[in-house]
Write a structure and sequence with these properties.
mainly alpha; 164 residues; globular; 6 helices
């Protein structure tokens, strides 16, 4: 496995820059008040967009590598991950007190699972030489940042007594 230092600097800068909204969203949720309301709307939407972006990258790489016969499973998984992110957002909006199932928590868990599945899928693609080796440590750190932020957000929203 290559090191993160082997990655092109622009990929590292843009990748870590993409973590800013994740961290800001989790912090906003912890602040309470208007910041919490804004973050509760913005963070899941941003996470869904990034999950779709990552899945779209896999769709595109499949079409480039196997343009004559793309594998249906790859295309299906890419679409499934994008749709999972999309479904997670309204789940959180539809959540109402008194429901037997906390749909907001389910939405956070769907997003977290989506990022973990995408990471494992990308890890396999690196092993199969679809992506460069430097991509694994970068994706690992970015996935960790996204998953920790989403986990913190879920914890904050699930435990109503928490605030920064």
């Amino acid at each position: 496995m290559k090191r993160l230092s082997d990655a092109p600097l622009i990929a590292v800068i843009l990748g870590f820059g993409g973590l800013i909204p994740f961290a800001a969203g989790a912090i906003g949720l912890g602040l309470g008040g208007q910041a919490e309301l804004q973050a509760a709307n913005a963070l899941p939407v941003y996470a869904a967009v990034i999950l779709s972006f990552l899945a779209g990258g896999r769709w595109a790489s499949e079409l480039v590598i196997r343009s004559d016969a793309p594998r249906a499973g790859v295309l299906l998984l890419a679409v499934t991950l994008a749709l999972a992110g999309w479904i997670a957002v309204p789940l959180q909006v539809w959540s109402q007190p008194g429901l037997t199932l906390n749909l907001e928590l389910v939405g956070w868990c769907v997003l977290i699972a989506g990022f973990l599945i995408q990471y494992l899928w990308d890890r396999a693609a690196i092993r199969d030489a679809v992506f460069p080796e430097w991509y694994l440590p970068l994706r690992g750190m970015l996935t960790l940042g996204a998953v920790l932020s989403l986990s913190a957000a879920a914890f904050i929203r699930w435990s109503p007594t928490f605030s920064l």
